[in-house]
Amino acid sequence: MLVARRFVVKGRVQNVGFRFFAERAATLEGVHGWVSNRVDGAVEVFAEGDAAAISRFEAHLRQGPPAARVDDVWMDEDVPSGRASGFKIRS
């Protein structure tokens, strides 16, 4: 089943390679979408894919890379488009 979720990850998640970590995790799990730094210091992620793959991807986000400290992950269901391809790091 195709699902889409939007995540906001808070903590020490900028300038620690979090976006590159998310891109690698998405590629590993076969998830499509994007990741971007927010002006408030959080990282925002849109992910679309198989429900099980999205769950595994979320577990990666909750852990983060070694230099990060994830304090909170907000998640909201979104509407899958079925058109997403690849995973991009947005500036």
Describe this structure in words.
This protein is of the alpha+beta class and 91 residues long. Helices cover 27% and strands 43% of the residues. It has a 5-stranded mixed sheet, covered by helices on one side. The longest helix is centred in the middle third of the chain and has 13 residues, at 51-63.
| CATH class category name | Alpha Beta
β-strand percent reads 35-45%
Low-confidence stretches: none
Radius of gyration from the CA trace? 12 Å
Total strands: the figure is: 5
CATH fold descriptor: Alpha-Beta Plaits
What's the tally of helices? 2
Shape: globular
Largest beta-sheet characterization? 5 strands, mixed
> What structural class is derived from the secondary structure elements?
alpha+beta
Number of structural units classed as domains: 1
State mean pLDDT (0 to 100 scale). 96
| Order of adjacent strands in the largest pleated sheet | 4-1-3-2-5
Helix content: 25-40%
Helix-strand pattern, N to C? EHEEHEE
Our measurement of the CA-to-CA distance between the termini, rounded to an integer number of angstroms, reads: 30 Å
The CATH architecture comes to 2-Layer Sandwich
Summarize this, please?
By secondary structure, the chain is α+β, with helices and mostly antiparallel strands.
